[in-house]
Amino acid sequence: MPEYAVLFRSFLFLPSILSFFAS
């Protein structure tokens, strides 16, 4: 299912976005 891939991808991108805003 594509929605699982989108959810998994956003879950992987979350730490990167958080660290980007934190720095």
Structure write-up:
Keywords: Membrane, Transmembrane, Transmembrane helix. This protein has one helix at residues 2-22. With 23 residues, the chain is mostly helical.
Number of DSSP strand runs: 0
Report the sheet-strand fraction: under 5%
> Spans with pLDDT under 50 lasting ≥5 residues?
none
Mean pLDDT figure: 88
What descriptive keywords fit this protein?
23 residues; mainly alpha; 0% strand; rod-shaped; transmembrane helix; membrane; transmembrane
What is the secondary structure topology, with strand pairs?
Elements: H1 2-22
In short:
The protein is mostly helical and 23 residues long.
